[in-house]
Every structure is written in C-alpha cells, then in structure tokens.
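User: I'm designing a mutation panel for Signal peptidase I and want to avoid disrupting the core. Could you give me a predicted structure to guide residue selection? Please restate the sequence first so the numbering is unambiguous.

Assistant: Good idea. Sequence first, for numbering, then the predicted structure tokens:
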Amino acid sequence: MGTRGRPRNAHPEPAASLDASRAGRGRAERRRSAQRAKRRRQRSLVREVPLVIVVALVITLLLQTFLVQVFSIPSGSMQNTIAIGDRVAVDKLSPWLGWTPQRGDIVVFNDPSDWLKNDPVPTSGPVLGAVKSTFTFLGLLPSDRDLIKRVIGLPGDTVACCGSDGRITVNGHEIDEPYLYAGNPPSRIPFKVTVPAGELWVMGDHRDISADSRYHMTEPGGGFVPEKDVVGRAVAIVWPVSRWQTLPSGQQSVRQVSSAAPLSPVPAELPIVMGVVAAAPGVRRARRTRRA
C-alpha cells in the first residue's frame, strides 16, 4: 500500500457525494437553527404575555381614573333613557378641566348621605371581595356606593313641584322634561327647596320608582348632593351593542318653556375615543421597543 489504510488502486470519493453530504449537513443545521429560533420565539411570547397584560391593566387604570369609567346600571330609576343592565361611559376628565354639572346633565355621584343604606349588600371574603371590586371598577358589576341621576337644580336654584301645568319649576319657571318615563308625572311628591351653595338637586327619569333627592329631604343633607361627590357626566351607553348611543348634555336635555331663564352653556367634553387614540401610540411604541 502506498497510502496507509487505503489500497493503491482505490479511487478518491466522487465530488458529487461530497456535495450531497455537505448539503445534507446544511439542511440539518438549518432545521436545528429554525427549531432554536422557534423555541426562542415561544419563550419570548411566554415572557411577553404577562407584560402585555400588565401594560393593558395600567392603561385601563389610567383611563378609568382620569378619563372615562364604565358603570353598570342595576336599577330602572333612569328608564327609559338608561335601562337596567346598560353600561354607561362617564367622562371623568372634564371635572379636572373645570367642568361643573348643569341642569339636565346625567351624572354619577358617590352616595352622599347613606342613600343606599337600605339596599342589601352581600358579604364576601377577601378574595371574592377583591375580584368584585375589580369587576366593579371595570364596569362589569354595579357599584355598591355610586348612583346615577339627572341634575334638576343647581346651587342657588329654587326647585318646586308643581306649577300650574303640573311641571317642575326652577326659579319660578316651568321646565319641559321630554325624557320622563311614559305615564309618570314630574313628581307625585310636592316639594319646594332652595339648593345650597356647592350642592345639587337630582331626580331620576322614572320618577315613580326613583329614590332621589325628594325621598331624602328629611334626612341629613336634606336630599342634596355635594358637587364634590360627582364622579362625572354620563356621556354614552356603550353596552349592549343594540343600545349604543350618546347621552345628551344638560343644554340638550332640559328645554324650558316660554319666558324661562336661559340655561348656562355646557362646555364640550373630550370624546371618549380621543383618550383611546392617545393611549394607542404608547402601546405600539412599547411593543416596537420590546421587539428591537
């Protein structure tokens, strides 16, 4: 043998076989690389999902705290304007910008003087209580301490029932209330009050079943709602889909009959969609940053 381990007359391995071998090794390496890349993507997705959830919750918290909060409506006191089970978007930004409630505005407010004391509140453990609080904040469950009514009297107004035509009067002028539940009079309870400074007089649209300011006149607070307890103005019904609609501001809701004093102008609220659009670029930038 001239070459150790191989006969003299052995021919070298053909070039085609070498090429095929290299190609096979290349395909195997590409498969392994693809599998490694797939595993990296899966691990990245597992890490990214919790981050996305946290970011979504933070954005929701900011939106609900400073811009818009959704409330679930558990009663029929605002029928037929707002139905039982509707979810209503409430503008929380405008109060930060100096907005104050106007006559005819539908507002959500904190229970001012234990108005809900006779409503049973089911007890729950700490875990269930935390879940319930979260669902309430997100508008999936009704709140145990917030109410929704329509503003009828502003600070300094004298509100009475009823005028010669059976209508509510504000400062001696009858007001037209087209939103009243069919068949309901403006009020079956006669009253006359002067709204103190910093307070509001509120009533439901379904007057016969609404335990509003009229029903709390003899209680501490006199049935008035402090302006500081107002969470914001209800601007739209957002659920169910079949009920999608905006809710008119006070200037559009309460029409005064002839000779009535003019209503104060209502500043326009920032549309809900602007808050969502403003938040969206931040989400997209965060996603691009994570991918970079």
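For picking mutation sites, this is relevant: The mean pLDDT is 76. Residues 75-116+145-270 form a domain with the Umud Fragment, subunit A fold (CATH 2.10.109.10).
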